[in-house]
Structures are given as structure tokens and as C-alpha cells.
Amino acid sequence: MALDKETVMAALDSVALPGGGTLVSRDLIRALTVEAGTVRFVIEAPTPEEARALAPVQATAEAAVRALAGVEAVQAVTTAHGPAAKAPSLKIGQHPTPQQGGPAPISGIDRIVVVGSGKGGVGKSTVSSNLAVALAKQGRRVGLLDADIYGPSQPRMMGVSKRPASPDGKTIIPLQAHGVTVMSIGLMLKEDEAVVWRGPMIMGALQQLLTQVEWGKLDILIVDLPPGTGDIQLTLCQRTKLTGAIVVSTPQDVAMLDARRALDMFGKLKTPVLGLIENMSTYVCPNCGHEAHLFGHGGVAAEAAKIGVPFLGELPLELDTRLAGDAGAPIALGDGPAAQAYAALAARLIAGGMA
Ligand SMILES: Nc1ncnc2c1ncn2[C@@H]1O[C@H](COP(=O)(O)OP(=O)(O)OP(=O)(O)O)[C@@H](O)[C@H]1O
User: Fold this and answer.
1) Are residues 171 and 267 both part of a single domain?
2) Among 70, 111, 148, 272, which residue carries the largest CB count within 10 Å?
3) Among 115, 126, 157, 233, which is best to mutate for testing ligand 1, by the most ligand atoms less than 8 A from CB?
4) What is the four-CA torsion angle of 226, 206, 136, 179, rounded to 10 degrees?
5) Whose C-alpha lies nearest to ligand 1, atom 14?
6) How many structural domains does the chain have?
7) What InterPro entries would the database entry show (predicted)?
């Protein structure tokens, strides 16, 4: 294989960062050049402290590039942004502006699909990120909006952490990860900063994420909702023209009870339910191959049949899915059993005109 920038970037994409993600997925590589066997690049950290902490990562990156065929010399430096130039300040969290008429589409976005659940922790964010990646792998232009304002998890799951730029203090430039355009309120806050807002501020923040982000042209925007049936769900369904909702549940009775509430809410808000997904459906022991159903099995399919909505599929409970999410590289990027299940789900949505 010829030595070129793509080959070097692929090698750098294998270099994991301490907080999750890779040098490439977190967009830290600058000024990469390849000249007659000599590779030069800059690792640009957001702060001088982070730059110091990246010294071992630089060594790993140099070794990864040096191992490529045709590389004779590697010259890498790690720098920091330094104190950020004073950008026009963008305030996230404000009172919503009134909207005339009914739910409005977002210009440039063909379909908006929300992913919801009744209960927390059933895998809504995992499904959203993996579905986004699986759809992007099948050639769709995909956006992922993390609307879980109280507990944003997409920055970690997609391996992004850079604060999105706002060149004019109004528009927000989203980030790119694994072929997906990503925006989360978590990117505008410090990782452990809590959002302590009342309903109107939340609605205003959501409105900003939907309308001030430069999404570009998308075939589908996937919105990862917070759990439950609160202000965010209400605002989104009433103000934005949605293609529909996907409801994720585990097969457990308590999860299904809450999922029914979510379904009831979408019914009341006249948001079409595109289908149900059963997550953490089966567990195959990696040592002996025994298949177990830790949270039961088939409950979601039975519910879908009962209420007459499509059952979109079941996803296995597996350690690799959790590890991949924590590492910022969704499991759907690979080709194992979970990735195949997500690929089938993506293909089904595309075939049905939903993505
Ligand atoms: N199929 C799976 N196999 C293994 N682990 C999973 C699976 N689905 C989700 N998880 C893990 O379970 C945890 C909760 O998942 P996730 O954050 O996606 O749920 P959620 O419904 O979005 O939660 P929240 O209510 O906090 O938003 C995460 O650590 C995730 O990695």
C-alpha cells in the first residue's frame, strides 16, 4: 500500500486517548504531511495541561506511524491551543422564542427520528449512536443530536469532546465523528457540570440545538431523548416535524411498563411510532457459548404485536458493546454480531423510507 495521508490517519486512528476516543476521532491531528518517507504532524490539545498529559500518546502515535511500510522518519510535536481567542460568546440555555403554526421541519434535514424509552439505562443512547454509525456506513448522511440535556452521553459514546465553534456567536458548528455529524449540549458544558434549569430554559436550549446548529444536508437526524415523558419530549414533538419515534426497551416487565408510557405519550402527541427495539435481549457466554436471557426475552416483540407497531429487532447484551461505547468507538463500526444487528436495523429503516 502506498504511503499517503490516509494511511497515516488510519494508523493514528488506532491510537486511543486516556478519556476515550482516538487522536483522529477527537480531531487532535493538525498539519499532517508525508514527504518521501518522512511523516510530520502536530497533536493539538485543547489546553497546556492536556498537552502535557499527551506525552505518552505522542510516543505511541510515533511508533504506530513508524511501523507503516515506507516510513523512514517521523517528526511529531504536541502543542496546545493556549488561551482561546475571545470568540463571540454563545449562551446556551435561554428562554424559547415563540413559534407560529404547528411543528416545523428543519431546513436541509429530510427526516428526524427520535429515539426514546420510558425507563433510563435501557440503552437508548447506545442504540442512537450505533444506529447513526450503521446508517452512515450504508451511505446515509446522518446527524446525531443528544437531547438528553440532564445526562448527555453522546460525547463519550461518539468519542468527541471539543467545544463546537460558534464563529458569530449565533450559529454552532457541529462536530464530526465516525461519519456522523454530532451535537450535544454536553459539548458546551464541562464533563461533570450539572444542568440545573427549569422547563423554559431547557426548551430554549433544545430550540438552540435544533435551529442554531449548522447541520448541513442530512438524510436523517437521530435525536437521543432523555428517559421518561417530560419537557424535552413535549417540546420536540410539538415544535418539530418528526418522521417518528423509535422506542427502546429491555424485555423486563418494569422497563416495558415505562415503555408503554412513552408509547402513550407519542400517541397523545401524534408522533408516529416507527417501531420498538428490544435491547439486552440475549447474552451468549463468551466462555461456554450458553445463551441466557437476563432480562427475559420476547416481551418487546409481543408488545409490538399487541399494539400493532413494527418490531424492529433485538440487540444482544454483550461486554464489547459496553466497552465500545465507553471508548467512544461504537460497536457498529466493526462487523461482529452486534454490528450485524445494527446493520440489519439500518438496512430495514432505509428500505422502509425511514432513514
Ligand atoms: N446491548 C448492550 N450490551 C451491553 N451493554 C449495553 C448494551 N446497551 C447498553 N449498554 C450499556 O448500558 C449502559 C446504559 O446504556 P445507555 O446509556 O445507552 O442507556 P440510556 O437508556 O441512554 O440511559 P440514560 O437513561 O442514562 O440516558 C451503558 O453503560 C451502555 O454501554
Assistant:
1) yes
2) 148
3) 126
4) -110
5) 121
6) 2
7) FSCA_dom_sf, MIP18-like, Mrp/NBP35_ATP-bd, NUBPL-like, P-loop_NTPase, YlxH/NBP35
